[in-house]
Amino acid sequence: MATNTVNVEELKPHKKVKFWAEAKRQPFLLISSALLLIYGIIFYYVPVLGWVTAFQDYKPAVGFLKSKWVGLAKFQKLFENKTFYLAFRNTLCMGVINLVFHFVTAIAFALLLNEVRIVFAKKFVQTISYMPHFLSWIIVTAIVRDILASDGIVNEFLMNVCGKEMAIDFFAVKGYFWWIVAFSNVWKETGWNAIIYLAAITAIDPCLYEAADMDGASRFQKMWYITLPSLRPTIMILLLINIGNVLNAGFELQYILGNDVISDVSKILDVFILDWGISQFDFSLGTAAGIFKSVIALILVCLGNWTAKKTGDERLF
Amino acid sequence: MKKSKIAAIALASVMSVSAMAGCTKTPTPTTSAAGGGTGETTAAPAQVKEFSAFFAVPATTEINKDNEIQKIITEKIGAKCNETWLAGQQPSEAVGVFIASGEYPDFINGGDAMKALYEAGALIPWDDYIDKYPNIKEFFTPYEWSQFRQSDGKIYWMNPFENIYGQDKTTTQNGEAFWIQARVLEWAKYPKIETLDDYFKVLEDYNKANPTTHDGKKNIPYTMLCEGWRYFCIENAPQFLDGYPNDGSCMVDVNTKKIMDYNTTPTAKRYFKKLNEEYQKGIVDTGAFTQTYDEYISKLSTGVVLGMCDQWWDFAYTVNDVFKTQDTEKYGYNYIPLGLTIDKGMENQWYTSGGTLNVSSGIAITKNCKDIDGAFKFINDLLSQEIHDLRFWGVKDVDYKVDENGLFYRTEEMRKNAADPNYKTKHLCTYSYFPQWSGTSRDGKNAMMPAEQLSEFKDSLPEPVKKVFAAYGANTYIDLLHSVNKAGVWYPMYSYSNNMKTDTAGGTAWTKMGECKHAWLPKVVMSKDFDKTWNEYMKAYAECKPEDFVAEMQKELDKRIADYEKANAGK
Amino acid sequence: MAKKNSLKRLHVGDIIFEIFLVVFMLIFVVVTLYPIINTLAISFNDGFDTIVHRIHFIPHQFSTDNYKAVFAKEGYRMGAVNTVARTVLGTLISLVVNAVLAYVISRKRFLFKKSFSLFWVITMYVNGGLIPTYLVYQKLGLTNNFLVYIIPGAASAFNMLVIRNYMNGIPDSLEESAQIDGAGYFKIFYSIISPLCKPVYATIALFVAVYHWNSWFDAMLYNKMHDELTVLQYELMKQLQTAMRSAGSVEGLKNGGTTITPTSIRAAATIVTMVPILCIYPFLQRYFVTGLTIGGVKE
């Protein structure tokens, strides 16, 4: 099968000897990477020096250098707060559910759309599919609430068709909330997320399909045994990237759809940071929580990368 | 072909960018013209002073650059101000960035973060300037000014709102009340409703007799909003029911001068027990705890909700407008405020007259302002009667007319204009976060603000509400409440608790108490076993250490009383 | 081609699959289109009417007031100019930068391949926070400056990784044969790799363009005191907040002069910003044609 990414030629072992010789051969690579390195340091790494504020009682007026040092007190404050753990659990769970749904639906949609033969229909469906991406979360949440309202379309369906007696108040049941969030994400982003896969499908060698035709493969078989495996490198890369984003499980959705009855399951880390950090003028606490998120993300990504190495898949680094 | 097209687009955009880069470099704001020291509005000097301002609140109206009234004002006083408003950001974050960067506009209102600005040394003290500008000076009494003093004993900002000139002209209960639809009162033959029990009895009886609205929708006898910061609709009623004014976060015993927590009083328990009973009976909206603000407003707007507890500004503007445009106010859907107490025969303070001075925030002038005298003169000029009328009434004969008695009035079309967003951005310029007066105009006849002009107010009342007023012998919404005014010199205490942050034990307790109430109040109301849940709630509440909060508030209360006595001892 | 294949041999499974496909796509289109149509309907419905009546597919009480309110502000013209400028410039620059970055990192013989990859991957998960970032931009003179829209976001690890992943799929033999012909790395990038990467370039261009089109946070954060540097979405954002607040202002009441509510104005604003960006896609879509890649060269 076509895993055309496996390298044919590995770098020769006598690296050190050849270092300068090799360097001479790649001036374009070295110069552009040097420029990009400087750029990256300035715009991504220098601001990270701001992490020192997590170890201070940072006051914007006093600045980074003169704010009072408090050691790990801000982290202690974070880890002593019960709400923090609740928010962490909720964020993690919603993040994982979203991640799974995101991948399954986007890949399935890309595969199926690719099977549509009529070019016009294909273009039409695709254009429709990513339109919800341009709606803001506020609009989407309003529509979701509308649909799930006690006299909304879902409840009407349940009562008239399925014979339920009472309307379900979907936003008062803790068990539903994470799934409502996941569904809303799917609804809004599936078509958009599929774009990358659709682009990757264009790179598949047409000969593979021709060969399969010779063998008498059905369309489903071709999709399953050729298209899907060919997407594997793309899927792996996106999976690795998004594993690190598990703790960024959205904000508006939980903020707007959540309510006091189900706050045990709806409160997420970013809301916690807003309530206990930023709104309190306690930027240090917000930074500490941010560091916590970054560390978790980096651990997850490294684990993922390591696993990918073991299985021989595409890696991030 | 294609390539050249792309190149053309790129070129065009590069040019527009460089053109804009040019714009940014042209010297803007803050001129250096010498400030005239007089408080009068004088003829325009040759050079117009331009100031910049940032307000850490979202805008109510953002005016256009060529706004007509702004132009008139600029011509008259020789200065203008470009206002920038908070959008898409937390106020504390916006202020934090200003402080960290050290780049401030000339004027700033940092909302709840004024203290941080003061501590950062960003503001200039007012003490040497107030006496020079009579309109600013007269805005507050010496004692009121003294309340703005910070830890170094100086004044750095003034609150621009809720200050009454001359006679109070307030017509609506802008604050909180238990509200009831006019149709319920009419059906019940305008009874005397004094207590929570009376209130729910009327709602229940009416609902039994008339279960639907005019178009057959099922009534919701009582609902309450609990979303986010708006949960005061369920949370703070106990202070009013006990006859105390809206100190917002606590009650103050007038005799012992002690802070009391209204969350744990017997009244609080009785209030929530009542809600619980009514909830079990199906009188309280089952969707109350999960509804969003938008859904709440929608519910009220269809007229199905018979009653609720809320502040006027939180619902009335939108809801009353819908009743008017949908032509449903004739069914008596408009809301009437009631000044309820927990027991009969108690005094209530739902409405507190004489304006409310919130010293915790206001407008300040920053150290980056190059023409401090000019800035003060600008505020002073905005407060002169001529400019004040221009700001809030508009241009004579265009936005309002004057009758033979000198009273201002507006035609139907003028009222429409005043509410039209296009007209507002093009024509009206209120400088809405600069100091302004309510109450009576300096001419002694008119109201400072059109909304408070009694004739304007009466004209706009729907028929069923007029009948309610007649039945209870009231002229305004305020009359219906029968509130007494006993607010102490410390009032309102929320001007302190609003600014509490988690950097103190009291502030931490305050934040935790909020979280706890958010989580427990729905449970308490919905519980099948009220007493058990209430006890659990009280236990969880005690764990937030409310005593820390009370202690910090007590300190502030003592300070305010001492300050008052100090200020009056000197007289 | 496709037609010939399907005629050649018809599986029973294929027919079932075809039916499933049609049904699935129909349902998908309806479900996805609903929020759009709903938003469109609300945008053309009287604001107060929307509060009372639930709107689904068609307006209940037709009105264009929402659109009038959206265009009432004068900031839009300037905002539109800036937004178009940053979208065009930002997309071009970002595409070039990310393509070069991906190219460099995807070269097997590049000496710092692994460490340089790691360097960029980390940037996806750490950030210094609002205030430190602001201070850095301030020192660089990027605050109160149009360039803050273009420069800081130009290189992005995510975009780089997507392009790199695509480049990895291109057989090394192409590069090797070009090297034998004496081509340098730049030549290979410019005339061999890039033409093959059109689909992924189109994808990234779309992502970046949409990002620029929708951004307002940078305008708010770095240029808020300069009206001439505003962008479209920021103006809309402000307009929305204003609508939200003035729905509760004293002048708003009294005489029913206005019938605009946050919900209705938001719907109109969404439609207004959605339409132009939707027009970009058809231009990019033609790069997504199966089989375009890799020409005749095989492994």
Structure write-up:
The complex is a heterotrimer of chains A (317), B (571) and C (299). Chain A has helices at 15-25, 27-45, 73-80, 82-115, 119-129, 137-148, 153-160, 177-201, 206-214, 219-230, 232-243, 252-257, 263-266, 269-276, 283-311; strands at residues 56-57, 68-69. Chain A is flat and about 75 Å long. Chain A folds into two domains: 15-71, no CATH class; 74-311, MetI-like fold. In chain A, strands 1-2 form a two-stranded antiparallel ribbon. With 317 residues, chain A is mainly α. Chain B is of the alpha/beta class and 571 residues long. Chain B is built from 24 helices and 15 strands. Chain B has a five-stranded mixed β-sheet. A four-stranded mixed β-sheet of chain B has the order 7-10-6-11. A two-stranded parallel sheet of chain B has the order 5-15. The longest helix of chain B is centred in the first third of the chain and has 24 residues, at 2-25. Chain B is globular. Chain C is mainly alpha-helical and 299 residues long. Chain C has two domains: 2-72 and 247-284, no CATH class; 75-224, MetI-like (MetI-like fold, Orthogonal Bundle), CATH 1.10.3720.10. In chain C, 66% of the residues lie in helices and 0% in strands. Chain C has 15 helices and no strands. In chain C, helix 5 packs across helix 13 (232-246). The two termini of chain C are 23 Å apart. In chain C, 52% of the residues are buried. Residues 1-7, 248-257 and 290-299 of chain C have low confidence and may be disordered. The A-B interface holds A 59-61, 63, 83, 142, 145, 149-150, 169, 171-172, 256, 259-264, 274-276, 278-283, 285 and B 90, 92-93, 96-97, 99-100, 113, 116, 119-122, 226-227, 231, 286-287, 289-292, 294-295, 501-503, 507, 511, 515, 518-519, 521-522.
